[in-house]
Design brief:
The protein has about 450 residues and is of the alpha+beta class. A 5-stranded antiparallel β-sheet has the order 2-1-14-13-12, with helices on both faces. The protein has 2 domains: about 75-135 and about 315-460, Beta-lactamase; about 140-285, no CATH class. The protein is globular, with a radius of gyration of 28 Å. It has helices spanning about 5-35, 35-40, 75-85, 120-130, 180-190, 215-220, 245-260, 285-295, 300-310, 320-330, 355-365, 375-380, 440-460; strands at about 90-100, 105-110, 115, 140-145, 150-155, 160, 195-200, 225-230, 265-270, 275-280, 355, 405-410, 415-425, 430-435. β13 (about 415-425) and β14 form a beta hairpin. It is about 35% helix and about 15% strand. The two termini are about 35 Å apart. α3 runs antiparallel to α13.
Length: about 450
């Protein structure tokens, strides 16, 4: 129940509570006024009861049992049947696997390449976890310019830098502060009247094939450049804030303003090889940024992490180079990418194609024994009805999945996807990937949520 009816119901409950409290208070006053103990207990000995010993809570993580019954594919298919008949799924493909044995239990058109939307980020995250140390950080530096009056801001690929004052929250927890650069520059004693921003760490176009330029103002993306404030957000604390079309220049202008330099004296250029360092900050470690990327489904952060993989592999730090590096990292770890076609690493491109089998195989590797380096991915996934992009789902319908389903979401204009894992009522960990095309998200997302909730509750043995 919601809206006016819900507010009326709350008012009735509050009124009843107030009346009960008033009545109890009045009864207490009357009882005290009568002082019943004076009649027969004034001479009685007063006794007290000793306080019970303190209880120390001992929270612990209970492991999933390894002897739960393995669901049968036929039973899973029968349980999913009514949900699969929902026309709101449109064109559908899916795969369900048993994490302990690595067995695919059920599938439907699992080899058909479909638009993955933001479930693409599972491939990006997996490649980064396999190719890079989890403590990897990205630098942003300031070096001396070619002329004594110039400073060069060198972007190393960190899109999480923030202009928020020290001590104030930032969109990306643990992000470096531009004020730290300002302090270091001022402490160095260097004086300048010009800021040059070096964006050479990334190459190629700022927007990928399959992106709409309107998504910049829509708050979904910014041109991918190697230094940004809060992922290019104009409102630094708002997730889907409109983005800037000139993220790197904006950083230079803010830096100039805080140094007392005219922002008009900021331009794109290149640092000299071997230029003297003046100031520097580093991003949060990769492990933290991966959690932020998956939990919030952050497109800009996904593209930046993909470039980190490319740079590590000595590949071109462009969209094409990053896609190639991510694909190579996955293939090198025995992932079969047949049917995969990517133009970006965030999933915003409408031209991407990924089979459900591939998404399920990544989750199966993370939940199973074959790729222990991917295990942290399970903790990054949003919790149904609780966190991230699943926070507002499973609240009304399909509550059986709330708190049990953990999954990466994917949403475009006529595409929805859900890929993650769930512990069923028998204690078995099941991984799954469900993809829908041809229906609006407001229709297809509940249909996908219902399928995942069914996996939780069916006990399909």
């Amino acid at each position: 129940m919601g809206g006016l009816a819900a507010r009326r119901q709350r008012k009735v409950r509050i009124t009843l509570i107030v009346l009960v409290v008033v009545a109890l208070a009045a009864a207490s006053v009357l009882w005290l006024a009568q002082r019943p103990w004076e009649a027969d207990a004034s001479g009685a000995k007063v006794t007290t009861v000793a306080e019970p010993p303190p209880v120390t809570p001992a929270p612990n993580v209970v492991a999933v049992p390894d002897n739960g019954p393995i669901p049968s594919g036929a039973a899973i298919g029968a349980a999913l049947g009514p949900g699969l008949a929902n026309p709101d799924l449109g064109q559908f493909t899916g795969s369900v696997s048993d994490a302990l044995t690595g067995t695919v239990l059920w599938s439907a058109a699992e080899e058909r390449p479909m638009t993955p939307a933001s479930t693409t980020k599972l491939l990006t995250a997996a490649a980064a976890m396999l190719a890079l140390p989890m403590g990897h950080r990205v630098p942003t530096t300031v070096v001396a310019g070619q002329s004594p009056n110039e400073l060069v801001l060198v972007g190393g690929g960190d899109v999480t830098l923030t202009a928020q004052p020290v001590g104030e929250p930032s969109f990306y927890p643990g992000s470096p502060r531009i004020d730290d650069l300002v302090e270091q520059i001022q402490r160095s004693g260097v004086k300048a009247d010009t800021i040059i921003v070096d964006t050479g760490a990334f190459t190629g176009p700022g927007l990928a094939q399959g992106w709409s330029p309107g998504d910049i103002a829509g708050g979904y993306i910014a041109p991918i450049e190697p230094v940004m404030l809060d992922g290019g957000r104009l409102n630094p604390l708002q997730d889907e804030s409109p983005r800037t079309a000139t993220p790197a220049l904006d950083v230079g202008r803010v830096l100039a303003s805080r140094l007392g330099i005219d922002p008009a004296n900021v331009r794109i250029g290149n640092a000299q090889s071997g230029a003297a360092p003046i100031a520097g900050v580093q991003s949060a470690p990769l492990r933290d940024r991966l959690g932020q990327m998956i939990g919030r489904s952050d497109n800009v952060l996904a593209e930046a992490i993909g470039r980190e993989v490319a740079i590590k592999a000595n590949a071109d730090p462009s969209f094409a180079g990053a896609v190639s590096a991510v694909s190579d990292a996955l293939r090198a770890n025995d992932f079969d990418l047949a049917g995969v076609l990517l133009h970006d690493l965030s999933g915003l491109s409408v031209d991407n194609r990924v089979p459900a089998r591939v998404l399920d195989s990544i989750l199966l590797a993370a939940a199973g024994e074959t790729q222990p380096a991917l295990r942290p991915m399970l903790d990054y996934l949003p919790v149904a009805g609780g966190t991230g992009t699943l926070e507002d789902r499973y609240a009304d319908g399909d509550r059986a999945g709330a708190g049990w389903v953990r999954a990466k979401t994917g949403t475009l204009a006529d595409t929805s996807a859900l890929a993650g894992y769930v512990v069923d009522v028998s204690g078995r960990v099941l991984t799954f990937a469900f993809m829908s095309h041809g229906r609006p998200p407001e229709a297809s997302r509940p249909a996908l949520d219902a399928l995942a909730a069914t996996l939780r509750s069916c006990g399909c043995v």
